[in-house]
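FIELD: query
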Amino acid sequence: MTPMMRVIFKLCIGLLSLLCILAVIGFFMPAHYSVSRSLVIEAPPGRIFDYLEDLREWRHWDAWHEMEPEARFEYSEPSHGKGAHQRWVGNRIGSGELTITGIVENEKLVYDLYFANFGSRSVGKLELEPVEGGTRVTWSDSGGLGRNPYMRLLGRFFDSWIGADFERGLQRLKELAEAPVPGRYRA
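FIELD: result
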């Protein structure tokens, strides 16, 4: 064996060892993740809920539409209320589907989220709580990471990755809901 082949062999053994160590660590990581962010919006719940319950309105505030505006989105008819869904395909955001599974008018919207690229499913919620000076909006998402140890390792970063998207989306929602818009208001 030449000296160069020995170096390559040792690098391969080292890389394989690292992958095995990461796999073992991954097996001990949680198989579930949960992400949540909140923001107080100076608007009544009804005004905010208008932007939540109609999936066509999400393009004005959610981070994924902003991330890849050229992605293709398809909406069910109607695009609002329980059972409404949207599908998307994009180079950056991948492909998936979101379906509204529960609504409590002006209080809560629950949805199922499916990312086809990862074969992962999660449950998301947008909850509105009247507070002094406005409405606290809490956006949360939780799901399983399965048995794949590498996915469980990635799950450690979901709070910062997904959380940043939630923060951006909530800030955009705040800007929309707090802006004066004649004729668009529900108490």
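FIELD: remark
Helices lie at 3-27, 45-53, 63-67, 149-155, 158-178.
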